[in-house]
Amino acid sequence: MFSHLKSLVSLLVIVVGITASSTSESLEYLTAKNLTSDYCYARSYAEVADVVKRCTHICIENFEVPAGVTLQLNLQKHSVLLIEGTISFGVAHWDGPLMYITGEFIQVIGGTNHLIHGRGEQYWDGNGGAAGVTKPERVMSINAKRGSFKNINIKNCPMFCVSIIGTDLTFSGFNIDNKDGFKGGLAKNTDAMGFVYSDNILIENSNIVNQDDCINIMASSNAVIRNVHCWGSHGLSFSSGLSNTDENNDIHNVTFKDCSIGGSLNGIHILTMPSGGRGKISQITYRNINIIDVTQRAIEFRQDYLRNGQPGNNIRIDDLTLDNIYGTVTGRSAVGVYINCGDGSCSNWNWRDVRITGAKNKDTCNFHPNGYSC
To answer: Which of 73, 75, 184, 261 could bond to 230 as cystine, CB 3.0-4.6 Å?
Structure first.
């Protein structure tokens, strides 16, 4: 995967740009810190509960969370949380999450040299959540309203990195580094950022290296993902049909733009599960997406998840726009475009300037978008 040096260099140019941006944005951290002298510091796990209860301006700094417990940050309304130093977690074989943040009108800001270390290297065993040792399922679990999370550095997630439920939230300058997990192919199910039951979400200006979905969206509406750059993942993804309750499968009005994804299994990726309830994925846009050396399918829309070759029509995919999607696939079995829709469940797909090179095999399409010849 990393032998594609030219592609990797191209991606690193992007990454350097993001890192420089994140470093300059750390001025926001310093500005927040200097607004008041009344910050309450927690320099050990034992101090956190009291500080969070008493204060709305909080700094957590450089400590380890004991094994088998969650770092609970139930923030008061209008709180500002600053993160300094390394926050790490003792190793225990449990479900997690390692860190839980909730609140309303909150700001969470990372300092220039901070790190949230999930210690995934102590758990990875070549298996995901369904086998092997029990792993904490999430490093950071968020349930919040009207807030922002900026310049957050996360390393070595045992499984999922960031799980989001909320409304009116911005995530900017996330740097998720799971590259150690490529050694021996040990890390699995390390989805980077995903959200569900959410509305009005912005994810931007972020750099992600992981081994599963880079961004995954479920049962949500009104979101923009922009200037996010991924390496080694499974895709810029949507998942639906996972719930038997119909209203919990709808996804509406989501845009990916100005993103890149490289060295990954898939690039653009929508999965629906035929065994689930009914639902609709609608008004979806991918614009200006650079796909670099994808090993399986650059663009994949399949309605046969876990029932290979037997697509269902319980989830409709309507109003799907692809505009200026370009890049390469590599490998003997790689294809540019794969579409497997259920009977009558795909409609109003409009594609423009979709250009994927390097495929040894022809596209596979049982539905044909406007503007693209499969």
So the answer is: 261
Q: Is the pTM of this model over 0.90?
A: yes
CA atoms of 81 and 325, how far apart (whole Å):
38
Q: Evaluate whether residue 56 is within a structural domain.
A: yes
Tell me how far apart the alpha carbons of residues 351 and 370 are, in angstroms, rounded to a whole number.
Answer: 6
Residue segments in the chain with a per-residue pLDDT below the cut of 50 = 1-25
Domain of 333 in residue numbering reads as: 234-374
Give dist(CA 41, CA 61) in Å, integer: 7
Contact indicator for 259, 297 with CB cutoff of 8 Å: no
Q: Quickly count: other Cβ atoms within 10 Å of residue 361's Cβ.
A: 14
Phi, psi of 244 (to 5 degrees): -80, -10
Instruction: State the catalytic residue, choosing from 212, 213, 250, 363.
Output: 212
Helices within the chain (DSSP H only): 5-34, 45-54
Distances (CA, A) of 127 to 92, 131, 186, 248, 339: 17, 6, 7, 28, 28
Q: What share of the chain is helix, strand, coil (3-state, %, to 5)?
A: 15, 50, 35
How many CA atoms, within 13 angstroms, populate the side-chain half-sphere of residue 55? 21
Whole-number Å distance between alpha carbons of 302 and 338: 8
Clarify whether residues 310 and 365 are in a common domain. yes
- Residues 16 and 151 reside in one and the same domain: yes
- Shared-domain flag, residues 4 and 107: yes
**SS3 at position 111:** coil
Please say which residue of 174, 192, 210 terminates a domain: 192
114 is catalytic: no
C-alpha of 351 from chain center: 24
**Which of 218, 217, 342 has its CA nearest to residue 274?**
342
pLDDT in the model for residue 36: 62
C-alpha distances out from residue 335 to 153, 159, 300, 352, Å: 34, 28, 9, 18
Look up 212 and say whether it is catalytic: yes
Q: Which pLDDT score, from 0 to 100, does residue 358 have?
A: 97
The pLDDT of residue 25 is: 43
Last residue of some domain: 192, 218, 247?
A: 192
Number of domains into which the chain is organized:
2
